[in-house]
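Let us work through a complete example step by step.
Step 1: write down the sequence.
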Amino acid sequence: MISAPFGLGPGTIFETHVHVTNLARAISFYGDRLGLRLAYHLQERNVAFFWIGGAGDAMLGVWEIPERDWRASHFAFAITPDEIGGAFDRLRAAGIDALDFWGNPTTDPTVHAWMPACGIFFRDPDGNSLELLAMLPGAGRPELGVVPLSVWNKRAAAAVR
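Step 2: predict the structure and record it as tokens.
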């Protein structure tokens, strides 16, 4: 039995790309505010590449395109459940608003109950949706939909009783 195409498993997406309308502003956001290391900047092509993790671990390409062609996109950075609490402080220190699934300011992560996974959303200066996502232990509960972590924890505690 093959678990995934071509033997791909966790952590096998190496590269993703996002479109922005101002590359200099995006370089400042992804580099200075998020702390990603600039790997390569091709001014003539209006693109910058950032390492996610160490050099060669994973990469984010940031492409400047005309505003008329821009559309919002979404991607998530994997973190551990232990990192969720501190992520709010790190985002706040970087001047970035933490958001829930619906785009509202929050201090309570969002749980995608079908997985289950816990996420904190935020936006880059162009409005692309980014997420810090941690898989949670236990089985998914798709019937719960999308709920705040505080609600998830109360329901998990009630289920144990």
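Step 3: interpret the result. Residues 96 and 122 are 7 Å apart (CA to CA).
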